[in-house]
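$ run holo --ligand "flavin-adenine dinucleotide" --emit tokens
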Amino acid sequence: MNTPIAYDMLVIGSGPAGQKAAVEAARSGASVALIEKTRKLGGACVQRGTIPSKTLRENALRVRNMRMNAQLSNFKLAEDTELATLITRLNNVLNAHDEYMRKQLERTQVNLIHGRARFLSPQDVEVESVRGEKQTYSSGHILIATGSHPRKPPDIPVDHEHLFDSDSILSMMYLPKSLTVLGGGVIASEYASIFQALGVSVTMIDKYPHPLGFLDNDLTQTFLNDFTQMGGTWKGNTKVTRCYWNGMDAVITECDDGTEVRSEKLLCAAGRVANVKELEISNAGLQLNERGLIDVDDQLETQVRGIYAAGDVIGPPSLASASMEQGRRAACNSLEITSGVVHSVIPAGIYSIPELSSIGISETQAREKFGDVFVGVARFDEIARGQISGALNGMLKIVCDTDGKTILGIMIVGEGATELIHIGQMALINNSPVDIFVETVFNFPTLAEAYRAAALEIIHQRKINSSRS
Amino acid sequence: MTSAKVSPQPGAAALERAMEKLVNTGAIDVPMLPEVAGKVVRLAQDADSDAAELAKLIQSDQILAGHVMRVANSALYTPNASLVSLQQAIARLGMKLISEIALGASINSSLFNAPGYDDHIQYVIRHSLLSGLWAKEIARACRRNVEAAFLTGLLHDIGRPVATQAIITKAKKLEIPIQKPVLFALENQFQRTIGVKVVEQWEMPSTVVEVVRYFDDYNAAGEAKNQTMIACAGSLFASHFMCRPGDEGCMTRGELIGQAVLGDLDLYQDEVEEILEKEDVVKSAMEALSA
Ligand SMILES: Cc1cc2nc3c(=O)[nH]c(=O)nc-3n(C[C@H](O)[C@H](O)[C@H](O)COP(=O)(O)OP(=O)(O)OC[C@H]3O[C@@H](n4cnc5c(N)ncnc54)[C@H](O)[C@@H]3O)c2cc1C
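-- output --
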């Protein structure tokens, strides 16, 4: 082993978690090294996940809107549209992001090391450069932020040519005519609806009855209505028994109900597993839990003192937004810096078409936990702005405790959901009663008015209840 | 454009000037990609087309049909050589693969007329084919576009034989006797620009055009950078495997693994080793395709 170079903190992985952790630690005066195995910074979020998929989505929305306004434009995508033309400006966005991150790291004097890390002991990490040179670094404070990669079920022969995973789907050359999507989670729902909006004939298959099972059925049903109205097919309660490229012109997906789905390409979106293969965490005394993730306590510390983990390696919610905050908090906890008030309720954003977003607990969870809770629903087609902009297929739901005042959760489906949710988030974390949405004047006409309509429903129910008792 | 070191030969400078003019005016004689091959590539990209259509198209070119059948029946694809019809071959091997075979077969030395340089052209074509096959494996490992990798590998050097042919024709016209080193220097100088023209004229997808354009400087390739790096890496793999013991400038396995472009693709040395393990698969595909 070469002479180790010591740092106050080592961060492994430059995704949202690692990057925020490194900057936070360095700002407190610690000497920090950020180890990243790829040339580009930003992890799955920037390179293969969030940003590229959202760029495609932006164009999918444009295409869908043009189709919907048939009187204005008779729009049809060309037969052999290259996918790259639909992910416009991605390179500029990525380069700008990369440059911004590099500057921020430089400014805060984080030492960026390009190489692949593996543990030698709980304090020592060896980094191998892409050219094969090795150097050891040591620290009593190490953060694992190596993210995740797509789970590859053993019976799905992903070849990145006909059968893709979420890491490779955007490398397709042409927009396919048809696509089968295996899975009903966030990534599956996002890509399925984005491709459907682009005119690809999409079949989504999952073993559960509804996609996005952590949301209430009325929300997922709204999503499904939109998806099927666009021409998509949802096959719930269905198990895939076999899946293969027929060597000629189609990927064949055989299902347990005896049906066979043929498509030009297939996306396997069967969850994600922690990126630890190269990390050799056993040398640090760590192991994965049965879900293939690293366990941490509420301080984000692993079972080994001094080793923390944040982001996708620790599992749900597996969001860039959550990963950033976890990374920052892990750095604070590790170096004993006060991390400020930390709100544990964070929103989930699903950038499908239409969008979905939620914060707090769902109606189903609330009923299980508290019994007769209050629920107020506002449909976008009842809101002036929804009528004006044609965003009719949407709803906002507020769930309140049995007192009809305390907000437990908010769920929104429909365009703008991921932005709208923040109004509810502020009310929720400030413990404001649901009445705040009625006592406040919102711009008119806006979709935010849905808060008012949903809150009014709850207040109305509350009044009826109290007059009864 | 760097100037070729051709001055020692009388007339070489004049030839260089003539070539420059030819390239600048766009008057290069781009060989026709056999119509059938062009259609085959387009048909394979069209999800609505079917196997029967493809078979009919290939059948319209006897030589091509014969070649495709020979490859389809080779040990790699059909160990017991049992395919009797094109349609059967397509059903067994798939439209994409058949179109790769057809395109690979169409890019052959008969496209070019360069007397005295047949071996050179043959070598370039074999090298391109092998580059395409390796590029596919590299793309798979990087989770990048596997479909485009073969095409870009196959066509990245297409300017070379066209340049050779143009130089020979021009030299004949100007009555300048040409020596091999001069021809190769001029070929190096002009092949890239010519290559771009060829793939543009052949209406190849824009990625292919960009890869050919930026093959010598992938950092400038913008959005096509990754695909260009993959084609470069494919070409390096091909060079390594085509080098016979004793050849000058051969890259050892170690040197290949240490190539900058592989590092730029974020391929670590063990990952490159893993790609190299595909040697047998690539070799058999090569044997079959160049049958
Ligand atoms: C298709 C898709 C869409 C998504 N959309 C959204 C969205 O809209 N909103 C949202 O909030 N989230 C979204 N996500 C999730 C989000 O991308 C992840 O939650 C987030 O990137 C996780 O951050 P991280 O820092 O934990 O890991 P990552 O971003 O995965 O980064 C980990 C980094 O560690 C590096 N690394 C791994 N092993 C080593 C090693 N041994 N040595 C050195 N470096 C190593 C990797 O190269 C990588 O750069 C999406 C994900 C996908 C796949």
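-- notes --
Chain A touches chain B through 34 residues (CB under 8 Å).
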